[in-house]
Design brief:
By secondary structure, this protein is of the alpha/beta class. The chain has 15 helices and 8 strands. It is globular and about 70 Å long.
């Protein structure tokens, strides 16, 4: 490699760095398959919860969300359902009130978005005469499994102050994009969330189906108002040494976008928020990790580098195609690594997700075709990541229209 140019050295160095990052993710994911012995708890102790649904023009789906919460297998006097009707111009507030929720209407044309709505709603809850131990956040399109709160409660009784539930799909078979989304979330639940729970690292909040102790919110404040408020609050928790726990049996069914266009806009917003949070938190998390010799904040920092990893892997793929046609180009580092190792890496990448689907009992007759569309869905993350990073300073909120009126009875 002595005759390499400076450009080649930089190119190979970047490839090696992100391949090492990929290896780190792979090694961590292995721990999702290692069973962890759970400590027993007294499940006759019932903490009190405020269930908050954030809703913006959700008149088509809000009633089914509330209905599923009313059917929770949990003492009715131990939880209350609230809806924050945020800048609604439809009948969301009226329908939610008639369905049995306590509704708070918020109108603010300047501070728009779910993060602002939640911050406003939390303050309203703090002012109430009745007190709660934890606040659980849902989206209006969600359908909640009847055992959700009971299983969240078990994790809190173990001492966890923040708990994320299992995000499933309520409409995986609606279109190719909903199935691709579903595969993605099933994989994340297993390989990312479960592995970190098993290693006592911090899981990531997913925007819905999570519970936060009231004393945590009062102590450190919400303050998460960017386009990815869940990610922002996760990083804030990590800086304050508060671990996000995982309740794999607390299931929330989430509506996935029906079209590529809807998905594209949603994921652009996610990547804009991701890049924004990365710029504000990576340095602080790495500094904390090395100063205090802790893996958890470093793991969070590495997660924030995902947009760069996606773009880098996309660039490596393109360079690989070029190198296949022109072997003398030596664009890709594998020219210096035995081909057998690369074959093993490629095989593992293609086999990993199907293995997860089998283990999670999500494999069906549609899985083969669905996995092919999932590969295409994965590739679309490359341009989305590029656009997201470029537009990270844009704060315009894109609202995904929810239309799938599915009840908890239909799912169960």
């Amino acid at each position: 490699m002595s005759d390499l140019s400076i450009v080649s050295i930089i190119n190979y160095s970047v490839q090696i760095a992100f391949l090492i990052l990929g290896a780190y993710y792979f090694i961590i994911s292995l721990f999702s398959f290692i069973p962890r012995k759970e400590a027993g708890v007294d499940d006759t102790k019932y903490r009190k919860y405020a269930l908050v649904i954030a809703a913006h023009n959700e008149q088509l789906v809000i009633e089914n969300a509330i209905d599923s919460l009313k059917k929770l297998d949990y003492p009715k006097e131990k939880y209350e359902i609230f809806v924050v009707a945020d800048n609604c111009t439809d009948r969301t507030a009226e329908i939610a009130g008639n369905a049995g929720a306590t509704v708070f209407k918020r109108t603010d044309n300047n501070a728009r978005g779910k993060g602002y709505a939640l911050e406003w709603m939390f303050e309203k809850l703090f002012e109430l005469d009745r007190k709660f131990d934890s606040i659980v956040v849902f989206d209006a399109d969600n359908i909640v499994d009847k055992s959700f709160l009971k299983n969240i409660n078990k994790q809190h009784l173990k001492g966890l102050r923040v708990v994320q539930g299992y995000i499933d799909s309520k409409n995986p078979n609606d279109s190719w994009i909903t199935y691709a989304y579903s595969i993605s979330f099933w994989s994340i639940n297993k390989l990312f969330q479960q592995s970190r729970a098993n290693l006592n690292l911090s899981c990531q909040l997913c925007g819905t189906g999570f519970s936060v102790d009231v004393d945590v919110l009062k102590k450190i404040g919400w303050g998460a108002t960017c386009l990815t408020e869940d990610m922002e609050f996760t990083m804030k928790l990590s800086l304050n040494d508060i671990r996000v726990g995982w309740a794999s049996d607390a299931i929330v069914y989430d509506e996935k976008p029906l079209t590529l266009s809807q998905s594209w806009k949603q994921r652009i917003r996610w990547m804009q928020g991701h890049a924004d949070v990365s710029c504000r938190f990576v340095k602080r998390l790495i500094k904390k990790a090395f100063a205090e010799k802790k893996l958890a904040p470093l793991d969070c920092a590495l997660y924030l580098l995902q947009p760069l990893r996606i773009i880098t892997m996309g660039a490596i793929t393109i360079m690989a195609w070029i190198q296949t046609a022109y072997p003398e180009s030596n664009l890709v580092i594998w020219g210096f690594i035995p081909q057998g190792i690369w074959n093993l890496v490629v095989l593992a990448q293609f086999a990993w997700t199907p293995l997860v689907l089998i283990v999670e009992r999500k494999a069906t007759k549609r899985t083969v075709w669905g996995y092919l569309t999932y590969i295409f869905y994965t590739l679309t993350w490359v341009p989305i990541a590029i656009v997201g990073i470029i537009n990270k300073d844009k704060k315009e909120w894109f609202h995904t229209q929810h239309t799938r009126k599915i009840s908890i009875n239909e799912i169960q």
